Amino acid sequence: MSDAPSAALSVVIPAHDEEAVLPALLTALGHDGIEVVVVSNGSSDATAEAARRAAPWATVVEIDEASKTAALRAGDEAARAFPRFYLDADIALNAADLHRLAAALAAPGAVAVAPSVAFDSSGSSALVRAYYRALPLLPAVSHSIAGTGCIGVTASGRARFDAWPPVLADDFFLDGLFQPDEKHRAPDVTARVTTPRALRDLVRRRERVIWGNRQVAALGLRAPAAGGGASGVVATALRHPRRLADLTVFAAVGVLVRVRVLVKDLRGQSVGWNRDDSRAPRA
Questions:
Q1: Average of per-residue pLDDT across 71-79
Q2: DSSP states of 6-30 as a string?
């Protein structure tokens, strides 16, 4: 069990079939001043057992529902310390990183924090690499704490909402709760995010993101972000004319994904989780 009363911060890790990558993360986190809660949600592998072996000090919760937001709800019920971090099982961060992020939340007015992101596209196709060279250039992306694999909130930040809503885009929901001056990406902590291998894998991942973001917006859970959409891409191209080729790929992928989502919507189909296993196992 966790030594939560003396913990300086808590970490909630939703984990669905993450047996392969979870032990490395838990070993890196350790338990010195960190309350660790792992929630195995509907796993068909030995995720829970792997967590207990790697981190006997952690609290491991098992639920039947294969839902990330259900796992986040269960994790919040078990965790007690603040600030609280919601961490993807396949993101490579360590205890020192989390303590630096927690220190950033001690700044006046800070409510939410995320690491900076470095995209690892070493095994990806040329089109996928172009897409992820363009992505960080957009203000709507660089000013958001979504898509980082890790978001930390203060107790007052967590009090902005009751239970996690049943949406795919949990990070987009959380990002929309805070004003721009209340959230930031820490420059001294970087999370490595492995990009999809091929264009079809990227399209599937982006379908899930678009569908999840639409869920959040339709429920009225956040205001539309400024600087997004076609106008945001055009404005970014004017600021970065040498990246026009990358931004063209980015725009084309965006159109393709939105058309595919629209067609599925008209057919009454849902996108679902669309987990990207093209680069598994991930570290």
A1: 97
A2: G-SEEEEEEESS-TTTHHHHHHHH-
